[in-house]
Specification:
Elements (H helix, E strand, L loop, with lengths): L1 E11 L8 E14 L5 E6 L12 H15 L12 E6 L9 H20 L9 H13 L2 H9 L2 E4 L5 E4 L7 E6 L6 H6 L7 H19 L5 H4 L6 H7 L1 H12 L4 E3 L6 E4 L13 E5 L8 E4 L2
Parallel strand pairs: 3-4
Antiparallel strand pairs: 1-2, 1-11, 2-4, 2-5, 5-6, 7-9, 7-10, 8-9
The structure holds L-homoserine (HSE).
L-homoserine binds next to α4 and α5.
C-alpha cells in the first residue's frame, strides 16, 4: 500500500491568541509510506540533510506513538504497521515558527489511521479520524494550537481542555510570511524565556485583543492592525532575535499588521492595497501565501 499525507504549515498564536489560535497556510509537506518499498527513511527539500534517517525523525516517532495508541483501542483487524519506506518532501522550514514539528506529527498520525482503516477494508477511512488525530498530535507534540490548524485547516481555536473549533477566515486576508534565512529559534528556548506569571492588566489586554483578532480574521480584516497586539510573549521573544525585531518594527511603522509566527523567529503579516509589506532586505524570504482551507489530507496511490 502507498499512502501520502499532505499537511500544511501553520502559524500559531496570531499575536494575542497565545497557545490558542492557529492558521493553516498553503505550504505543505508531503510524507509517503510505501509498504512495498525498501524499508527505510529518506527526505528531500527544506532541511533534508539534517533530518534523521534511522527512524528517530518526528514522523516515524509519531507513527510509533500512534500505532501503540490506536492499536490498543481496536478490536479485530490490523494492529501493527508492516516494514515500510517513508519518504518526506519538506517545504516547511525547520525551527522558524511555521509548525514543522506539528506537520510531521500530524502526518505520521494521519498515516497510521489511514493505513489501519484501509488495511481493514474500511471504505471511507478518513471520515472519523480528524478529532482523534488532533488529540493524539496535541498529546505527542505538545502544541495543540499548531496541531489543530494542521489537522483541520483554516483558522482554529483550541482551549487547554482540548476543545477545538475551525473557522473559514475572511477571503480578503493576504498573509505574508517573513522568514529570516539564518535565524532559528527552538520552541523550547522561546518558551523558556517567558515569564511564568503575568500582570492582570496584561491578561485583560490580551483577552480583549484576542477577541478582536477573531472578529478581524473572520469578518473585518481592517481591524487586524489594532487587533494583533500582545503583551504575553512577543516582546520577550523579539528580544531574543533583535534582527527580527527591527523588521517587526519597520512593518508596524508602515501600519502593516504583523505578529510573531508561533514561537518565532518568522513573522506573519497581512497586507492590503494601502499597506504593502516592504522589502525586509537581505537574509529574509518574504512569501505571499494563501490561507489553506483544508487540513491534513491522505492520498492513496493506485
Ligand atoms: N503556542 C506555541 C508557542 C506555539 O508560542 O510557544 C509553538 O509553535
Amino acid at each position: 500500500m502507498r499512502l501520502t499525507a499532505r499537511v500544511p504549515a501553520t502559524s500559531a498564536n496570531l499575536g494575542p491568541g497565545f497557545d490558542c489560535f492557529g492558521l493553516a497556510l498553503d505550504l505543505c509537506n508531503e510524507v509517503t509510506i510505501d509498504t512495498e518499498g525498501e524499508p527505510g527513511v529518506s527526505w528531500e527539500g527544506e532541511g533534508a540533510d539534517e533530518l534523521a534517517t534511522d527512524g528517530t525523525d518526528m514522523v516515524s516517532r509519531a507513527m510509533r506513538f500512534a500505532q501503540g495508541k490506536v492499536a490498543g483501542g481496536r478490536g479485530t483487524g490490523v494492529h501493527a504497521l508492516p516494514p515500510l519506506h517513508l519518504h518526506g518532501v519538506n517545504r516547511i522550514p525547520l525551527e522558524r515558527g511555521l509548525g514543522s514539528s506539528a506537520a510531521a506529527t500530524v502526518a505520521g498520525i494521519a498515516l497510521v489511521y489511514a493505513f489501519f482503516d484501509l488495511a481493514d477494508g474500511e471504505p471511507n477511512p478518513l471520515a472519523a479520524f480528524p478529532l482523534a488525530a488532533f488529540s493524539l498530535a496535541a498529546e505527542f507534540e505538545g502544541h495543540p494550537d499548531n496541531a489543530a490548524a494542521a489537522v483541520f485547516g483554516g483558522f482554529t481555536i483550541v482551549t487547554d481542555g482540548g476543545l477545538v473549533r475551525r473557522f473559514d477566515p475572511h477571503p480578503d486576508l493576504r498573509p505574508v510570511v517573513l522568514i529570516p534565512e539564518d535565524v532559528r529559534l527552538s520552541t523550547e528556548d522561546a518558551r523558556r524565556a517567558l515569564p511564568t506569571q503575568v500582570l492582570l492588566d496584561d491578561a485583560v489586554f490580551n483577552a480583549s485583543h484576542a477577541a478582536l483578532t477573531v472578529a478581524a480574521l473572520l469578518h473585518e480584516p481592517a481591524l487586524l492592525l489594532a487587533a494583533l497586539r500582545d503583551r504575553l510573549h512577543q516582546d520577550v521573544r523579539l528580544s531574543l532575535v533583535p534582527e527580527v525585531r527591527e523588521v517587526f518594527e519597520l512593518l508596524r511603522s508602515k501600519e502593516v499588521p504583523v505578529c510573531v509566527s508561533g514561537a518565532g523567529p518568522s513573522l506573519l503579516a497581512f497586507e492590503d492595497i494601502g499597506h504593502q509589506v516592504p522589502d525586509p532586505g537581505e537574509g529574509w524570504r518574504a512569501v505571499r501565501i494563501s490561507v489553506r482551507s483544508a487540513g491534513v489530507e491522505i492520498v492513496r496511490a493506485v
